[in-house]
Design goal:
heterodimer; A: 596 residues; alpha/beta; 2 domains; 8-stranded mixed sheet; globular; B: 310 residues; alpha+beta; Rossmann fold; Dna Ligase, domain 1; 6-stranded antiparallel sheet
């Protein structure tokens, strides 16, 4: 019923939109036209997003939200478990999965339609015709006789005249070649099935946010500043929202100049804008191995030459980095920036040591290379002592900082920020103008109201409690269910554990098997640009209940055990699939990727 | 006409199937049919019984939809459906069965051996690996017997790579085959009714030629249709494909994949329900034959309703 409501009421009606829009001015008109084009196009975009996901890529594709909704679309949406944002948003696993319910939710938002009579009529029709969620009804507008706009004959993009994609191939920009592995894309698509326990996501648990609080804030906005909240805003973002950002950064010991901040549509847009600003085709971008899967398609779409530097339990190996910088220098190449998630890294869960942080900042300063510090999880610490962010160590000369509200408040509000030295920021602002003019005014107002309640830190404390327990449950489940040869990280914070299996197990194939057992994870390949990571997997513990974590890990352990046993049979080496807990030495926190 | 479009399901190729299904639905709507889209799930029979479609367009790929399961249900319900019969689907889906049938019909298919997991787990089949590797030579191809796209297909360049390739292939099915690798041109012949459509050639543009994932991807593989073949080659290829189609008992449509080397066409497998997406080979071949997607869909429906016209 829920999904049906979304389908019937939530689907945007192009006709309606046009009708309401006769007062267009230049900007707005452009904006609107653009929106409409997007709407018509979203299938195509979703395809790309999914391809990126496949490429291993995705966590994200910015601004993907608009695409899901309605039944016919919803179905497809469910397939493309794209998500997100760095470290940030959901990863494979999908926006259609509601973390709280585990159920599939048609985006559009059920029940936003206020017309009760029309709703009642629809319900009646549903009962009378014994419809299911896949059936289409006439629109609310139609049944209620609200408007005289002709019903569009096709909601979905018409394929009339569509030729095979191959024929468009000649038109594609070089940068679209990041598309990879359609087979893996389809595999990931299935993780969005509601019966699947998905440890593949990167979702925070938004069910913990009190609905009354949300309602009160939105009501306040509606009553006190409706006109402003519905208006465009400055490209850099509102000063009042920047004050909230200063509080968040202050909690980690950073004190940036508000003029150095631009508010972005999620942290993901920060990565995009920084790359857009700094990278020409062929430029070197250095990142960790493994790296945030959602950053890879961004770098690739600007045709960067992505070079990955191995991580160990202390984060990026700075000695290897130094060596690499030397090699690049001798080739006459200067990397544009070094991208790092130093704290509770996505996907590995590791944290860069203080010594390495200091060394990295020294290197950046000595070589005049920018470091892009992506820090979505810094405040989600479950143990150990906080370490200073790179931005704090450097003072903001060579470190660009990317933050987000996604993990400490909500990914749905799409609010992040970037702090950069003024000359860089100036270019980023121009880039942002070209991309989307400004970040959502409404959600910036929401953050302002939310912070005014002075309980944002308490909410993070609550999240930390919940996630710490989930992490512990997952670690215990891993000890109980994974084979002795497996290793995994023990993160002190963040959302992910990175597990590495014996090198004869390919985690993409394992995923196919795991899906038959209704459980999913992200194959490690997604976090590398060169096909490595095939024996590793990323497991998320924040968006699933403790019970689901136990059961999900148990199921994965079972399919691994089968493969271990089979391999033993094939090679004549009998390996014990049973986890030998007592015999296990201290869990190796991190194993370098194969080949390292 | 009231046409149910069956798509989705739980197979690993759900994504492709939804794209195929959506495209078919659009075409059917434009043709003026009443379309009943069904994402196949536990309520399939209930819905078919309630809605009474005159014909079902099966746009499902992989296990469940392409292996005869859904077709069997449709046969029981007496609803005519597109594509091959349940029995033919089952034969095509299982590469081992298909190769048996192909060989029985006297058609060339690369040498192979098939194993199920039990053979390894309980009967020590690993001890036989050395012998068959000698017979097949390297590189050899390891495939899940029932699997779609390139999922789980691996090359093994040496004996050391075989166990790992087997673990991968067994992730998708309980039976796998090891097949001699034939180096040659990769061709696909789609057959509509009893008519072969122009041959499609897949040319790998970049990357590791032993990387199966690169195949069937826009950008990494170029598809040429009609393939540049001499008259003699074309005749040999289409005849072999048609013979395979008949040997497997296909009807409606199917796509036959094969490799052409200097010696002959080597038949690899038949796809009972080839993809119908923007990028799929059957629609490309149809277009090369002058059939628009709508015409292709209409023809496929005709064949389902009037098999005699084939």
């Amino acid at each position: 019923m829920f999904a049906l409501g979304a389908a019937v009421t939530g689907d945007p009606q192009p006709g309606q939109r046009e009708q309401n829009d006769d007062h267009g001015r230049g900007d707005e008109q452009r904006d609107r036209d653009h929106d409409q084009r997007r709407q018509g196009d979203d299938e195509g975009q979703r395809g790309t997003a999914a391809a990126l996901a496949a490429a291993g890529a995705v966590d994200e594709v910015a601004d993907h939200d608009a695409a899901e909704g309605g039944t016919d679309r919803g179905e497809q949406g469910a397939d493309d478990p794209v998500d997100q944002e760095p470290g940030h948003e959901a990863d494979y696993g999908g926006e259609n999965r509601h973390p709280a319910t585990g159920g599939s939710v048609g985006a559009g938002g059920a029940g936003e339609h206020a017309d009760r009579d029309a709703d009642a009529e629809v319900l009646e029709e549903v009962h009378a015709r014994n419809l299911t969620t896949c059936d289409r009804l006439a629109s609310i507008r139609h049944t209620s006789g609200m408007a005289e706009v002709p019903e569009p004959t096709h909601r979905r993009r018409s394929h009339a005249g569509t030729r095979d994609l191959e024929r468009y191939a000649g038109l594609f920009a070089e940068r679209t070649k990041v598309m990879r592995s359609s087979a893996m894309r389809d595999l990931m698509a299935i993780t969005a099935r509601p019966e699947v326990i998905s440890l593949a996501g990167g979702l925070p648990d938004t069910s913990t946010f009190p609905p009354q609080s949300f309602a009160a804030q939105m009501t306040r906005i509606a009553q006190e500043s409706a006109a402003e909240a519905l208006q465009y805003g400055p490209t850099e973002g509102f000063e009042e929202t920047k004050d909230c950002i200063l509080e968040v950064m202050g909690a980690e010991g950073m004190l940036p100049d508000p003029d150095d901040i631009i508010i972005t549509t999620g942290g993901q847009q920060g990565i995009d804008l920084v790359t857009k600003t700094l990278v020409d085709p062929g430029d070197v971008v250095i990142c960790e191995a493994p790296t945030y899967p959602g950053a890879v398609p961004v770098f690739c779409s600007y045709q960067a030459d992505v070079v990955q530097v191995e991580c160990d339990e202390d984060g990026m190996d700075i000695e290897v980095l130094e060596q690499l910088l030397g090699e690049l220098r001798s080739e006459g190449r200067r990397p544009k920036f070094i991208y790092s998630v130093p704290t509770f890294q996505n996907p590995a869960g590791v944290t860069m040591s203080l010594q390495r942080r200091q060394r990295l900042v020294e290197l950046a300063r000595a070589n005049e290379i920018l470091v892009v510090e992506d820090n979505p999880y810094g405040l989600l610490r479950y143990g150990g002592e906080p370490l200073p962010p790179l931005y704090q160590l450097d003072g903001g000369d060579f470190v660009i900082y990317i933050g987000t509200f996604s993990k400490i408040l909500s990914p749905g509000i799409r609010l992040g920020w970037t702090v950069a030295p003024p000359p860089v920021l100036e270019k980023i602002v121009l880039g942002k103008q070209a991309t989307d003019l400004c970040t959502s005014t409404l959600t910036q107002y929401f953050v302002r109201e939310y912070f005014a309640e002075r309980r944002w830190q308490r909410y993070i404390d609550d999240l930390v409690e919940i996630y710490r327990r989930r992490r512990d449950v997952m670690l215990e489940a891993l000890r109980n269910n994974f084979p002795a040869e497996a290793t995994w990280t023990e993160p002190e914070g963040g959302l992910f554990i990175w597990a590495t299996l014996p090198d004869y197990i390919d985690t993409s194939d394992l995923l196919a098997k795991a899906l038959r057992a209704d459980v999913a994870f992200v194959p490690g390949q997604a976090a590398y640009v060169d096909g490595r990571g095939r024996h590793s997997m990323r497991l998320n513990f924040s968006g699933v209940s403790e019970e689901e974590i136990r059961e999900g890990v148990r199921r994965i352990g079972e399919v691994i055990a089968e493969q271990v046993e089979l391999y033993g049979t094939l090679t004549g080496e009998q390996r014990l699939p049973e986890p030998a807990e007592e015999a296990r030495p201290n869990v190796v926190p991190f194993r370098k990727a194969e080949g390292a | 006409m009231k046409v149910a479009v069956l798509k989705g399901g739980r197979s690993l190729e759900r994504g492709v199937s939804l794209r195929s299904g959506a495209r078919v639905e659009d075409a059917l709507e434009r043709l003026g049919h009443e379309v009943l889209p069904i994402d196949v799930g536990p309520d399939l029979v209930e819905r078919l019984v309630a809605k009474q479609p005159e014909v079902a367009f099966v746009a499902m790929h992989g296990v469940g939809g392409e292996d005869g399961t859904v077709q069997e249900l449709l046969e029981i319900l007496g609803i005519p459906f597109t594509g091959p019969s349940a029995a033919a689907c089952a034969r095509c889906m299982d590469k081992v069965q298909a190769k048996d049938a192909i060989e029985e019909a006297g058609l060339p298919t690369p040498d192979w051996f098939a194993f199920n997991q039990t053979a390894f787990r309980e009967f020590g089949a690993a001890d036989a690996l050395g012998r068959l590797e000698e017979t097949l030579g390297f590189p050899l191809v390891v495939k899940p017997s029932r699997g779609g796209s390139s999922l789980g297909v691996r090359f093994a360049r040496s004996a050391g790579e075989v166990p790992q390739a087997l673990v991968s292939a067994f992730s998708y099915d309980d039976r796998v085959l090891l097949e001699r690798f034939v180096d040659g041109r990769e061709l696909a012949v789609s057959i509509l009714g009893d008519q072969p459509l122009p041959v499609v050639e897949a040319i790998l543009l970049e990357g590791d030629r032993y990387d199966f994932e690169a195949r069937y991807e826009i950008g990494r593989t170029r598809f040429v249709c009609p393939a540049e073949l001499s008259d003699a080659e074309e005749r040999a290829v289409t005849e072999a494909a048609l013979d395979t189609y008949r040997a497997l008992g296909c009807s409606g449509f199917a796509r036959i994949d094969l490799i052409l080397d200097e010696e002959s066409p080597w038949l690899l497998e038949a796809n009972a329900i080839p993809g119908l997406t923007d990028t799929s080979l059957l629609p490309q071949a149809a277009e090369a034959a002058g059939l628009s997607f709508e015409q292709l869909v209409e023809r496929i429906l005709d064949l389902a309703l009037h098999p005699a016209t084939a």
